[in-house]
Amino acid sequence: MVLGAALTAGLAASESYRAAAVVLNAGGGQATSARYSVQCSIGEIGQVTTAPAPKVVAKSGRVGQLLELTSLTLLADPAIIPEMRQSQLAGQAIVDDASRLILRGGDLFWRPESGLAVSIDPQGLLTAGNVYQPSSGWVEGRFPGVVARINLSILNTGDDDFGLYAHDQIPDPWQVGFFGEHNPAGQANADPDGDGQINFAEFMAGVSPTNSASRFVLEIADLPDLPTQKFVIFSPRLADRSYTVEYSLDLVAGFQPLADGGQIDFGETRFVLDPEATEPSKFYRVKIALP
Fold first, then answer.
1. How far apart are CA 179 and CA 134, in angstroms?
2. pLDDT tens readout for residues 81-90
3. Burial, 17: exposed, middle or buried (Cβ in 10 Å; 0-12, 13-18, 19+)?
4. Domain ranges of the chain
């Protein structure tokens, strides 16, 4: 029998696969099927096969070798994310033969800590959650046989954009501090302590919205010796706020600043003199502003 320059083998089959003929010659050959392909060359150290899973390394003297991962490191680009922005997740694994395997985001199964992410798409693209202060949390990544975690930081880019408390002119940390996260009692127009002042008014006044005894007080006091003058008295007066006393003779017409009649402070109580309090009906209010 005379053999040609190439040696060929017949089809290999089992219940789970069917392989095309393997070709062996001095230059090497390729075996392919619907599920995998193998590069084989005599004299080579080894080649890598490609398939959805598992990944296989073929080495000289061996038919093939399955990879076994010994460690997994997760990667995020970037690792510090502004709220509601995105970060690409990926991984890097060490194989039992000391080689390194780069894993794309879609190769791993991801699980974020509650509140850290709005979503992670099938390709590992994470969309950060909405926060009321700078926050951090972990994301867990899984690959067959190994699990790892990575810590991510989320930057708070707005003070009035968190959940139920968004866009109500009250800083989110103030509401979360008194009411926790996502509590309807903490919304701007709520009055949870029943003192007749809504949360927005109590924030502006610098008092507690959960204590009915803590409230902004405005009073009008007569001066017995000066019947044409009155004191407008209010408290608390806080150093980090500015106060303007306004008056109106006709509520439909609106308010205007009270003429400067002088003022006196006693602790957190301020007395403002109205030097022209002769009208039969005169209404007062205090306008509070933050820096």
1. 19
2. 999 999 999 9
3. exposed
4. 7-66, 70-155, 163-205, 217-289
